Amino acid sequence: MTDDVSDSGSGEPTRRTGGRSAGATRRSFVKTIGAGALASGLGGGAAGVAAAQSGEMHRLELDLRDLPELSTGHYEGWAIFGEEKVSTGTFSAGGMHSFEVDRDLSAADRIAITIEPDDDPSEAPSGVVVLAGELKDGVADLSFPVDFTDVSGSYILATPTDGQESHETSGVWFLDPSGDGPSASLDLPELPGGWTYEGWVVHEGQPISTGRFDDPAMADDSAAYAGDETSPPPFPGADLIQNAPEGLEFPTDLTDGSSKVVVSVEPDIDGTDPTGPAPFSIKPLAGSVPADGTDHVSYDLDRKTDTLPSGTAMAASEPAPGEKHRLEVDLTNLPDLSTGHYEGWAIFGEEKVSTGTFSTGGAHAFEVDRDLSEADAVVVTIEPDDDPSEAPSGVVVLAGPVHNNVAALRFPVDLWGAQGSYILATPTDGPDSHETSGVWFLEPGEDGPSASLDLPELPGGWTYEGWVVHEGQPISTGRFDDPAMGDDSAAYAGDENSPPPFPGADLIQDAPDGLSFPTDLTDGSSKVVVSVEPDVDGTDPTGPAPFSIKPLAGSIPADGTDHTGYDLAQQMGTVPLGTARIKGDGSPAVPTVGVELADAEVGTSGTATASIVLSEAPDGLSGFEVDVSLGDPSVASIAGASYPEGYGPTADPQIADDGSSVSLEAADGTEMVQPGDADVELATVELTAESGGETDVAVAVQGIQAENGSPMATATTGGVLSVTAVEPIEGALPTDPDGDGLYEDLNGNGEVDFDDVVRYFKHMDEPVVTDHVAAYDYNGNGGIDYDDVVELFAET
Question: Please, which of 347, 523, 531, 582 could form a disulfide with 377 given CB 3.0 to 4.6 Å?
Answer without folding.
Answer: 347
